[in-house]
């Protein structure tokens, strides 16, 4: 029994169901209260230096800060977060999903203290939820721009590319945020990823051997068409002839009006 399974047995009674819904409601609350100037979002952000100065609530409140964008985008982003999170909770069960979010939070908070004066966001926690959902349900389709159906695995590949770009081109705080999201994903899916890579590795040698056999067949061929390079080995159903220019042709490419050589140079 793995460590995660042992934790599940011990902590299952303490799992929070519908945790994503609470996060979405919290972000909507922060959005509305900030619009009414009842709260300053800057007091909720995670700045490790301020946490060390005594503003401990920032360790938790940054999770409830909504995306900084237009209202339509925020509504769409929160809907997708709820969709992905609820699907993962249904797939894993409440406790493992709780642990997934808790791990993402802990990595984000822990790594943020390396750059104590930078603002750490919750964007990559949501990003880890997206990557996890795409791994579990790769063929799930989204309507891009509400029109174009796209499988989520392709969007996940774009997300991975974006993370790689931010990691290699961004500053240290960006690198740490990406490391938190990717680390969270690997903790829960690393074994599955390695298994998939091993299976792919087992298939590749076979494909390589097939390619080598094809090359060997072409090299050992008695007759090779000078136009299409098909041979009596790769295409034994074809007939090959030698024309007056002393070049070999398959019957599909034999030049017209040219006499062919005697049958001792032909392959049936």
TrEMBL record:
Signal peptide from the UniProt entry: none
Taxonomy, superkingdom: Bacteria
Residues annotated as transmembrane: 21-39, 59-83, 95-113, 119-136, 143-164, 176-194
Main location: membrane
Membrane topology annotation: Multi-pass membrane protein
InterPro entries: Rhomboid-like_sf (IPR035952)
Localization per record: Membrane
One cellular component (GO) term of this entry: membrane
Keywords assigned: Membrane, Transmembrane, Transmembrane helix
Protein name: Peptidase S54 rhomboid domain-containing protein
């Amino acid at each position: 029994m793995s460590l995660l399974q042992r934790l599940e047995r011990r902590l299952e009674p303490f799992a929070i169901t519908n945790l994503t819904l609470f996060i979405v409601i919290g972000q909507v609350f922060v959005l509305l209260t900030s619009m009414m100037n009842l709260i300053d979002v800057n007091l909720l952000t995670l700045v490790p230096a301020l946490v060390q100065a005594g503003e401990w609530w920032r360790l938790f409140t940054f999770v409830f800060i909504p995306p900084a964008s237009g209202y339509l985008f925020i509504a769409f982003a929160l809907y997708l977060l709820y969709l992905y999170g609820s699907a993962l909770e249904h797939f894993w069960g409440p406790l493992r999903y709780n642990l997934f979010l808790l791990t993402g939070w802990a990595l984000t908070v822990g790594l943020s203290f390396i750059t104590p004066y930078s603002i750490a966001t919750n964007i990559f926690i949501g990003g880890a939820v997206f990557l996890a959902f795409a791994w579990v349900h790769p063929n799930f389709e989204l309507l891009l721009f509400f029109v174009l159906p796209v499988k989520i695995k392709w969007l996940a590949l774009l997300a991975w590319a974006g993370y790689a770009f931010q990691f290699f081109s961004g500053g240290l705080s960006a690198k740490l945020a990406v490391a938190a999201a990717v680390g969270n994903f690997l903790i829960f899916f690393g074994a599955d990823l390695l298994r998939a890579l091993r299976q792919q590795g087992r298939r590749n040698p076979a494909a390589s051997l097939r390619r080598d056999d094809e090359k060997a067949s072409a090299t050992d061929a008695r007759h090779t068409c000078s136009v299409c390079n098909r041979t009596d080995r790769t295409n034994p159903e074809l007939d090959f002839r030698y024309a007056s220019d002393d070049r070999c042709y398959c019957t599909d490419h034999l030049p017209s009006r040219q006499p062919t050589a005697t049958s001792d140079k032909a392959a049936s």
